Amino acid sequence: MAAAVLIVGLGNPGLEYALTRHNLGFWAVDRMARAHRVSVNDSKYHSVLGSGSLRGWKFILAKPQTFMNLSGKAVRALLLGEGLAPEDLLVMHDDMDIELGRVKFKKSGGDAGHHGIGSIIHSLGTDEFSRLRIGVGRPPSGVNGADWLLDPFLDHELEAVDPAVDEAMHRAIEFVVGK
User: Fold this and answer.
1) Quick one: which of 119, 28, 140 has its CA closest to 72?
2) Residue 159, number of CB atoms within 10 A of its CB
3) Exposed end of the chain (fewer CB within 10 Å): N or C?
């Protein structure tokens, strides 16, 4: 049994990114923190983090502050600093290959073009960690994917995103108690 489970939400630090599609991982961590009264404001391992427990299981919530494309630096530091292994890790992130509002669990595998996941795989030297992929769908025709991810959601999109963030939080809870 692991000493704890590390739940990392991917995103970019700073107010200018707070409401963007690329920050859904941060949203899911924040939702879980509120639901379980965890303060995510300790600053270490290139992240802001906090810990809590759920039915006797300890979990650590973290939001890397390294920017998305360097997420691996923070995740590696978190795992090493907390004495955890990649199998104790759950990463929550946005995914353009999944329809807006859908959530999919992935046990391991490649990065599918997601630079944050690619950075984690490179830094850990393995793709053997779990992910919760929160769908944002594909950008409209003629819109650059990277630019689109850094744009805020449109009002009508938030109707699908809010329940998806809730689902991601609940599935993260299942991951914690399933360890």
Assistant:
1) 119
2) 12
3) N
Return the SS3 of 157. helix
| Of 109, 172, 44, residue with least CA distance to 117 | 109
51 near 60, Cβ under 8 Å?
yes
Give the three-state DSSP class for 22.
helix
Say how many Å lie between the first and final Cα of the chain, rounded.
7
Residues 154 and 146: their CA atoms lie apart, in Å, by: 16
Q: How many CB atoms lie within 10 A of CB 81?
A: 15
Q: What whole-number distance in Å separates Cα of residue 3 and Cα of residue 176?
A: 11
In the chain, where are the structural domains located? 5-178
Distance set, CA 92 to CA 62, 67, 156, 166, 174 (Å): 10, 15, 23, 12, 13
The secondary structure of residue 56, as a DSSP letter, is T
Which residue has better confidence, 55 or 107?
A: 107
Report, as residue numbers or ranges, the catalytic residues: 22
So what's the pLDDT on residue 2?
A: 61
- Regarding pTM above 0.90, the answer is yes
Which residues are 60's β-sheet partners? 6, 51
